[in-house]
Specification:
Blueprint lengths: L1 H14 L10 H8 L42 H11 L13 H7 L11 E5 L5 H14 L3 E5 H7 L2 H7 L4 E5 L7 H4 L2 E3 L6 E3 L2 E6 L2 H6 L1 H15 L2
Parallel strand pairs: 1-2, 1-3, 3-6
Antiparallel strand pairs: 4-5, 5-6
Length: about 230
């Protein structure tokens, strides 16, 4: 810039002598004669990356209210003494009561014999065919009969459910089963005066081994006559 001004002044000095006047426009004269006004430079905004980011305000979650303190449970002996004092007629147990009877009653329907009035208790598979044939004869000529898997009832301890679910006229049971199977034996009853036998209040007829009736025709006929007498009424 200074070099340009010096060259300009040198040019004027060479072209115009001392005392000569140079005609210029009023605007140009006022520009050079007036006070120099310093122009303000416009500043561009800084790049986006350099701009100051607004402060981040972190909002903290409200603190959870303190949980109420739960008093520890009272010792068992204190509860027992309290119940004994307030309700002396209550009976307290140290362990939960046995619910096996309730479960037996609730599931007794599974042992229901549909329409049967006579049940034949079979413990041995080798005698199953004899009991099946005898049940068919009773069902056809006398009363509705059904063969029962007595071994399962004994193993699963389901005799109580069986007796609750069925109202039978007669039970046919092998005589050797009484005493051999403790679960069934617990329901056995014999009246000394009449020698009648029962299984849980149901009249029971104790049978010999199946082989006896299969090999002895007289024993088979006597058994059938007994069944006719007891089931004809």
């Amino acid at each position: 810039m200074h070099k340009l001004i010096e060259d300009t002044l040198l040019y004027i000095a060479e072209e115009y002598g001392p005392g000569e006047q140079l005609l210029v426009s009023g605007a140009l004269c006022s520009y050079f004669s007036g006070p120099q006004v310093k122009r303000e430079e416009k500043r561009l905004p800084p790049p986006v990356a350099m701009q100051e980011k607004p402060p981040v305000v972190r909002v903290e979650a409200p603190a959870e209210p303190p949980k109420p303190l739960v008093p520890p449970p009272a010792p068992r002996h204190e509860l027992r003494s309290l119940v004994a004092r307030l309700a002396p007629h209550w009976k307290l147990r140290d362990s939960p009561p046995d619910d096996s009877l309730a479960r037996e009653i609730a599931t007794a329907w599974k042992e229901k014999l549909k329409g049967a009035e006579v049940a034949l208790l079979s413990f041995d598979e080798r005698e199953l065919s004899f009991y099946t044939d005898l049940a068919k004869a009773i069902h056809t000529r006398l009363k509705k009969a059904s063969v029962v898997d007595a071994g399962r009832l004994e193993t699963e301890k389901r005799w109580g459910a069986f007796f609750r679910a069925n109202s039978l006229t007669l039970l046919l049971c092998p005589s050797q089963a009484i005493g051999k199977y403790p679960q069934l034996t617990g329901y056995y009853l014999q009246k000394p005066s009449t020698a009648e036998t029962f299984l849980n209040n149901t009249p029971a007829l104790l049978l010999s081994a199946a082989s006896v009736y299969q090999q002895d025709v007289a024993s088979k006929r006597a058994l059938w006559n007994t069944l006719c007498t007891r089931l004809s009424s």
